[in-house]
Design brief:
The chain has five helices and nine strands, in the order ββββαββαβαβαβα. With 274 residues, it is an alpha/beta fold.
C-alpha cells in the first residue's frame, strides 16, 4: 500500500508563502514492529501507549526571489528549489503482547479453554486449524486484576520450518510472559500426549531457544473422555519438571479450571516482580 502525506503548496506573488504540507499519522496497535522491507532490520518497536516514531521526513520549501532582494537589486530573478521529502519501503508486523499464551496442537482444546476462562465466544469446531488467527481474551482474577490471554493457533511438527500455520503464529509467543501448554488426552487417536508435549517444546526451541526459558504450566485437557485417565497417569510418570505445574482439566466440562486460573494468575504476578 502506498501512503503519502499531503504536499505543500507553491509560493505566490506578493510575498505569499506556499502552504505547509500536513503530517500524516498512521495508528498502529501495541506490539507493532516497523521493519525495513529490503533488509528485514527492525527500525522501531511500539511497546508503550502513545509511542510515536517518524518514518519519513517531509521536504522543505525553496526560497523565493524576494529573499534575494537587496537595496540595489529590487527585482532579482533568483530562487532556490525546494527539497524533496523522504520515501522508504517498510513492513509493519504485529506481534501480540499478552500475559499468557496458550500453546498446543490443533484441536487440543485451546479455543474452548479461552472461551471458558475469559467468558467470550470463539470459533470452535472438530477439525484442525479451526483457529486461523489468535484469539484474545481478558481473565478477571479474584483480586480484581486483569490478565490478557492469547490462544495461539495450533502448532504442528516442523512448524518452525513454516509447516502448517508455522511462522505466522510462532512469532506471537515471543511477547507472552507465561506459556500454558495445552495437551490433549486422546485415547482413541493412538497419540502419546507426552510425545506431543516434547514436540511442542522442540518447535519452540527451533524457532527461538529463549522461549524455553519462559515460565510455563501444562494443562492436560479432555479428562472427561473415557480412558483418558490412564494417559494422564502415564504423562505424570514421564513428566521431568515440577508436578505443581501440571493440571488435569476438561475445558468442555469446566473441570479443574479454577486451580489452573489461580496458577496462571500467580505465575504472571511472579513475573512482574522478577
Amino acid at each position: 500500500k502506498l501512503v503519502k502525506a499531503h504536499n505543500g503548496g507553491n509560493g505566490m506573488g506578493n510575498n505569499c508563502k506556499g502552504k505547509n504540507g500536513t503530517d500524516l499519522f498512521l495508528k498502529v496497535p501495541l506490539g507493532t514492529l516497523v521493519k525495513d522491507a529490503l533488509t528485514g532490520a527492525v527500525l522501531y518497536d511500539f511497546m508503550a501507549e502513545g509511542d510515536t516514531w517518524q518514518i519519513c521526513k517531509g521536504g522543505k520549501g525553496g526560497k523565493g526571489n524576494s529573499r534575494f532582494k537587496t537595496a540595489t537589486h529590487q527585482a532579482p530573478f533568483v530562487c532556490t528549489p525546494g527539497e524533496e521529502g523522504e520515501a522508504c519501503e517498510i513492513e509493519l508486523e504485529l506481534k501480540l503482547i499478552a500475559d499468557i499464551g496458550l500453546v498446543g496442537m490443533p484441536n487440543a482444546g485451546k479455543s474452548t479453554l479461552i472461551s471458558k476462562l475469559a467468558r467470550r465466544a470463539v470459533k470452535i469446531a472438530p477439525y484442525p486449524f479451526t483457529t486461523l488467527e489468535p484469539n484474545i481474551g481478558i481473565l478477571k482474577c479474584d483480586d480484581g486484576s486483569k490478565k490478557l490471554i492469547a490462544d495461539i493457533p495450533g502448532i504442528i511438527d516442523q512448524a518452525s520450518q513454516d509447516k502448517g500455520l508455522g511462522l505466522a503464529f510462532l512469532k506471537h509467543i515471543e511477547r507472552t510472559s507465561v506459556l500454558v501448554y495445552v495437551v490433549e488426552l486422546a485415547p482413541y487417536q493412538e497419540r502419546d500426549p507426552f510425545e506431543e508435549f516434547l514436540m511442542l517444546r522442540r518447535e519452540l526451541a527451533a524457532y527461538d531457544p529463549t522461549l524455553l526459558d519462559k515460565p510455563f504450566l501444562v494443562a492436560l485437557n479432555k479428562i472427561d473422555q473415557e480412558e483418558a485417565q490412564p494417559l494422564a497417569d502415564a504423562f505424570i510418570r514421564k513428566y521431568p519438571f515440577s508436578q505443581s505445574e501440571l493440571f488435569i482439566i476438561s475445558a468442555q466440562e469446566s473441570v479443574g479450571l479454577e486451580p489452573l486460573l489461580d496458577a496462571m494468575h500467580q505465575l504472571t504476578e511472579n513475573e512482574k516482580i522478577s
